[in-house]
Amino acid sequence: MQLFLEHCKFKRQKSRMDVYMENLKLISNKEIYELEDKDVLKFLIYKDVNDSGRTVVHHYMCQNVGTESTEKCSDQVKCGLRHQSESMRVGIIDKLRKAFEDVGRVGPYDTASQLGDPTRASIVKEYMAYKRQEQGMSGVRSRKARHISREKMDKFMINLHGKILGLNRGVRRLRIKQRRAMYGYCFSVIKRLAGAGHVIATNTVRMPNNKGHVFNCTWDKTQIIDSHCFGFLCMRGKEPWCPHCVIDEWVEEAKTFGMDFSRGLLFPKINNDGTANMKTRWKSKDLTETLKRDLQSFHMYEGETPHSFRHGGTVNSLKQGKSLEKTMYLAYMKNVKTAQSYSRGLKVLFPNFDWKEAEVEYTDELDLMCQMKSWKAFVSSGSNL
After folding, report:
1. What's 237's domain CATH number?
2. What is the pLDDT of residue 173?
3. Is 329 part of a structural domain of the chain?
4. Domain ends where: 110, 137, 164?
5. Entry pTM
6. Which helix (H) or strand (E) holds 150?
7. What are the angstrom distances between the C-alpha of 103 and each of 20, 38, 93?
8. Does 223 share its domain with 337?
9. ∠187-191-195 over CA atoms, to 5°?
10. Last residue of some domain: 85, 106, 137?
C-alpha cells in the first residue's frame, strides 16, 4: 500500500488522453457515455481552428497558396494554422479512441443506437479525408525530420566543446555540458532527443576498465513494459568526440553542483540556480527550442528537430558497416519498413539490398560489449555512475 501510494504521488497527474477527453466533454457538455459522433467532429474542428496547429493551410482558391503565412489572406477561416492530418489522427483521434476503449465503448459506431466508438464513425472518417484533400490542394506534404549527418554532428559537438572551454564554472557551462551529452547519447544509440529524458541514472552502468556505458531503460515513446539493454564503447582517440566521455564530463560537472545520481534521471531538467529535481524530465517543446538555439549559435540550423538524431543515427550506423540487425536492435525498430524510412538516401550505398525480403531476428545478448552476455553480468562486473 505504501509503495502504491508513493507511485500515485509521483505519477503524472494528467495524460494527454485525459486532457483531450476532458475538453471534449466540456465542449459538448456531456459525459463520456453520452458522446456522439457529431460531438467528436465538433471537437476536431475546434482543435483545427483554435491556432494550436503548426501547419499553414490555404484555401485552394487563395492567391497565397504555397506561402508560409496567412497574414495577407482575406479569409482567416478558410486559411489558417491547422493540424497536419496525420498528426491529428495519431495525436488526437487515437488518444480519444483509447479513452473510449477504457470505458468499454469499442468497435464501429452505430448512428441509430449511438453505441460503439464515436471516433470510428463514418462522419469522422469523412472529415479526415476532407482534411487530407484540403491540405493536398494547399500543397501541404507530410514533413519528415531533417537528417543530421555524421559530418555535421562532428562539427556541432566540436563547436559545443569549444564553447564550454571558453566558459568558467557556472550554470551556463553545466547546461551546455548536459545538452552536449544528450545530443551525443541520442545520435550514438539512435534515439529521439526526448528519449534521453527517460534514462534512469541507476540503470546506467560503467563497463569494466571504463571501456564504455551500458543502459537498461524503457523505450522513450511507447513506454513498453519490457526494458531495452544497449550501450556503446569508449571511442576516445578514434573519433572526433566520444559519447562515453561526453557523458562522463557532464556527470562529473553535475556532481560538483550537488547532484546525486544514485537516484532519478541521468539528464534531469536544471533550474536557473544550478539545482535539479532528479525526477523532472525535459518537455518536448523545450527540447525543440533548445536544439534550434544551439544550432543557430553556430550558424548550422537547417530545420533539424529532436527526431533528426534518430534519422542521422540510423544512417551513420549502417554507413559504419553495422549490420541491419544490430542497427535495428540498437534503435529498437521491429519493422524493416521503419528502418527503411529512417535510412532514406542509403539506396546509393546499398543498391542491391532487398528491404522487402529482409527479416531481422532479435537477440537479448549484446555480443559487441566485451563478450558479456546479459544485463546481470554488466551490473555485477561494472559500476554505476
Report:
1. 1.10.443.10
2. 96
3. yes
4. 137
5. 0.65
6. helix 150-165
7. 15, 19, 16
8. yes
9. 120
10. 137
Transcribe 85-101 into DSSP letters. HHHHIIIIIHHHHHHHH
Host domain of residue 126: 15-137
| Residues contacting residue 321 through CB under 8 Å, at least 6 positions apart | none
Half-sphere exposure for 222 (CA within 13 Å, toward CB): 11
The DSSP 8-state label assigned to residue 140 in this structure reads: -
CA atoms within a 13 Å half-sphere pointing along the CA-CB vector of 204:
22
367, burial (CB in 10 Å: exposed 0-12, middle 13-18, buried 19+): exposed
How far is residue 119's CA from residue 40's CA, in Å, rounded to a whole number? 7
Supply the DSSP symbol for 265. Answer: B
Please, are residues 116 and 105 in contact by the beta-carbon 8 Å criterion? yes
Same domain, 111 and 165: no
- The total of structural domains in the chain comes to 2
pLDDT confidence of residue 25: 93
Distances (CA, A) of 142 to 64, 87, 160: 20, 9, 32
Question: What stretches in the chain show pLDDT beneath 70?
Answer: 7, 9-14, 141-145, 218-227, 344-385
185 is written with which cell numbers?
547519447
Within-domain flag for 5: no
Can you list the pairs that 44-47 forms with residues at least 24 positions away whose Cβ atoms lie under 8 Å?
Answer: 44/88, 44/92, 44/93, 44/124, 44/127, 45/127, 47/83, 47/88, 47/92
Does residue 8 form part of some domain? no
Say yes or no: 100 and 176 in one domain.
no
